Amino acid sequence: MIPKKYEFVTFAFFMSLFMTILMSFVVTFVNVGFIDGFFVMWGNAFMRAYVVAFPAVLTVVPLVRKLVKKLVSPT
In principle, which of 4, 12, 25, 43 could form an S-S bond with 57, CB 3.0–4.6 Å? Predict the structure, then answer.
């Protein structure tokens, strides 16, 4: 098991992983369709996007939490 102190990093890792898998698939499919080499193209798109997505989630999640806390009524 992963220690509690790494919960946020673990969350960011999996959130960015799943979102990047999904979004890179959709964008690759929309742009080229199911062609020969689709999965290679998708894999390349995923790897490039994940390099950006993981640090982005680490940065953005705390800001989003603060924004939501201000916008949502406590009751």
Answer: 12
